[in-house]
Amino acid sequence: MRHPLMLRHKSELYRLVVTGDQQELVVHSEEGEDVAFSVFPLGDGVLEVTVGGRRRLVHYAVDGEMVHVQDGGRVFSFRQERHEASGADVGAHDDLRAPMPGQVTSILVKAGQRVEAGQALYALEAMKMETLVRAPCEGVIARVLVEAGSQVDDGAQVVEFQPHEDAGAGKVQGDGRGAGKVQGDGA
Amino acid sequence: MPKSLEKVLVANRGEIAVRVLRAAKELGLQTVAVYSEVDAGAPHTLVADEAVCIGPAEPARSYLNIERIIDAARMTGARALHPGYGFLSENAAFAAACHDAGLVFVGPSAETIEALGDKVRARELALSAGVPVIAGALAPESEEALHQAAATIGYPVMLKAAAGGGGKGMRVVREAAGLMESYGAARREAASSFGDDTLLIERFIEGPRHIEVQILADGVGNAVYLGERECSVQRRHQKIIEESPSVVVDAKLRQRMGEAALRVVKAAGYVNAGTVEFLVTSGGEFFFLEVNTRLQVEHPVTELVTRVDLVHEQFRVASGKPLAFSQEDISLRGHAIECRVYAEDPERGFSPSPGKILRLYEPHFAGLRIDSGIRASQEVPVHYDPILAKIVAWGPSRDEAIARMRRGLAEYSVLGVKTNIAYLDAVIDHPAFRAGDLTTDFIAEHFADYREEAPSLEQAALAAAILSLERGGATGRDSARKKTSTDPWDTLDGWRIS
């Protein structure tokens, strides 16, 4: 067996190659580090894994491109990437997309309106909690794309935001969504 | 005697519906579950003898729809109704509607719920019973009057839903500039959670503990307190970890708080299980907060240290039976801790993480109790509170309870939705938590910058190995291919998954 794979965990991309036979696997990393596993499937979604003589149980689930692994009390979700380019554009503004599926309970800005950094733009309610989505920096609301009361999906575009030139995209770190969003009351 | 209730309908969903339905079955009662369209096949519908669909996913059209729930009780011939927590559990109109329909409501009377649910009246009741309260008032609707009320009380102030609890519709305001924005948000949250946007404004006490007293009262004048629960570990006023007993409550303070709690509920003519919440200052002073006229989410910690099944007692009291024990019979043994497992993403501001549960493993071992409302291949809907399960650990000492809890958290495995399990483990492993050094600011102080651990290279490699095993299957197909290059990167696009 010889399977090259690209896995993404958040902004981290792992280029790995899996070699070996059914139960003795070696995973080669791009940096030249190898990890040798003995694996023994214990039924649906459970694996006995031995690395360096130490044995443990791992729960996992594969769902489309996603592989979820529970190991040592932590769950890690990796996405399999098919193309080099994809995922490279994290850090963009993301237009202050809905951070979760839910109902837009109020829109607090109008198209064309100038907003300050941290100003609340809209309120989203899901699972009985209201979250205020705020401007990550000074800018202008180009468009408002949904009406108050609408149900939106995770990542739905609610407002189109143009950052002020001086406050530009360079200021927004990380994955855009998180940068723009401040939970709740700001207290 | 609770058998006289014959058949009980549980007007709730999730872990609490499962827990109450089981208790009813243990007492020999027949059971009816209700569910919304998205909850078809949910665990609570499976443990009940019968299950009735009461409408679409939106809470207002199902779990908050009094008419549909009463109809379901009529249709199935239920004699009693248990409301669980949340939804209609503290709705006086619902209790009254049950009474009018000839159903026994497992909880206090509509009048008591109304009196205690109105926080202004509840404070007056506490004051009249000689129990100290925090200065505050109804929040005026006009901007000017609101600013004036806040200035009179003095910042920081707390805005909270007059009808609510559980952190919904609550905001702390530290300065006048943020007052109106918080007022608007708290009102909207109050309206959507409780159908009532009336707000209270009160003095916000810095760094207190939240400690509550569990009480049980029967219909013939007997009432007992069952120790306290320390619920200081809260995120945005939502409890996440609770324990009993509290490390700062000694026998003397327990008795003083317990007796104060009983004075309040007796003044209200309270019957059934209830909780009196207090703020406790670092100096050991306590102030009445409110009475929750229902079973609490965190009731299992009390059950584990008192060996009393509170839901059994609720049914006994509702059937008209007097309490079978008195205050002297109640003692606390050992220590219990509860962690609430939520479908939420700590990395994204704890936003809810609905989705399909791909895999679920719940550990079971001595000293561990899991109250769960989920099953594998269930969709966790977006419409309701994100609680999935409660992990409750008991130990002879607090340290032993913590050790068991850590093992329970490490073994509990739910895949497909993001959860706060790793976060809970980080909290109970924190030196301040281990020391019992808790205030309601604990999370804000110690976990404001919480970040999940990144996977190690070994864990990424393990994920790759799993994908290979799952998708590669038999090895022949691939190993026979691509013998030309020795550099693995040359074949990066050579392997495609069907």
Gist?
The complex is a heterodimer of chains A (about 190) and B (about 500). Chain A has about 190 residues and is mainly β.
Secondary structure elements and pairings:
The complex is a heterodimer of chains A (187) and B (498).
Chain A: E1 2-9, E2 12-20, E3 24-29, E4 34-41, E5 46-51, E6 54-63, E7 66-71, E8 74-80, E9 102-107, E10 114-115, E11 120-126, E12 129-134, E13 139-144, E14 151-152, E15 159-163, H1 177-180
Chain B: E1 7-10, H1 14-26, E2 30-35, H2 43-47, E3 50-53, H3 66-76, E4 80-82, H4 92-100, E5 104-105, H5 110-117, H6 119-128, E6 136-138, H7 143-153, E7 157-161, E8 170-173, H8 179-194, E9 199-203, E10 209-217, E11 223-235, E12 238-244, H9 251-267, E13 272-280, E14 286-292, H10 299-306, H11 310-318, E15 335-342, E16 344-345, E17 351-352, E18 355-356, E19 359-361, E20 368-372, E21 379-380, E22 387-395, H12 398-411, E23 413-415, H13 421-428, H14 431-434, H15 442-446, H16 457-472, H17 476-479
Parallel strand pairs in B: 1-2, 1-4, 2-3, 4-5
Antiparallel strand pairs in B: 6-9, 7-8, 7-9, 10-11, 10-13, 11-12, 12-15, 13-14, 15-22, 16-17, 18-21, 19-23, 20-22
Describe the structure.
Chain A is mostly beta strands and 187 residues long. Chain A contains one helix and 15 strands. Chain A has two domains: 2-80, Glycoprotein, Type 4 Pilin (2-Layer Sandwich); 94-180, OB fold (Dihydrolipoamide Acetyltransferase, E2P) (Beta Barrel), CATH 2.40.50. Chain A has one helix at residues 177-180; strands at residues 2-9, 12-20, 24-29, 34-41, 46-51, 54-63, 66-71, 74-80, 102-107, 114-115, 120-126, 129-134, 139-144, 151-152, 159-163. In chain A, strands 1-2-3-4-5-6-7-8 form an eight-stranded antiparallel β-barrel. Chain A has a four-stranded antiparallel beta sheet with strand order 12-11-9-14, with no helix packed on it. In chain A, strand 7 (66-71) and strand 8 form a beta hairpin. Mean pLDDT of chain A is 80; it is low at 85-93 and 167-187. By secondary structure, chain B is an alpha+beta fold. Chain B folds into four domains: 2-106, Rossmann fold (3-Layer(aba) Sandwich); 135-203, 2-Layer Sandwich (Dna Ligase, domain 1); 209-446, D-amino Acid Aminotransferase, Chain A, domain 1 (2-Layer Sandwich); 460-491, no CATH class. Chain B is built from 17 helices and 23 strands. Chain B has helices spanning 14-26, 43-47, 66-76, 92-100, 110-117, 119-128, 143-153, 179-194, 251-267, 299-306, 310-318, 398-411, 421-428, 431-434, 442-446, 457-472, 476-479; strands at residues 7-10, 30-35, 50-53, 80-82, 104-105, 136-138, 157-161, 170-173, 199-203, 209-217, 223-235, 238-244, 272-280, 286-292, 335-342, 344-345, 351-352, 355-356, 359-361, 368-372, 379-380, 387-395, 413-415. In chain B, the strands form six sheets. An eight-stranded antiparallel beta sheet of chain B has the order 14-13-10-11-12-15-22-20, with helices on both faces. In chain B, strands 3-2-1-4-5 form a five-stranded parallel beta sheet, with helices on both faces. In chain B, strand 10 and strand 11 form a beta hairpin. The chains are: A mainly beta (187), B alpha+beta (498). At the A-B interface, strand 1, strand 2, strand 3, strand 4 and strand 5 of A face strand 8, helix 8, strand 17, helix 12 and strand 23 of B.
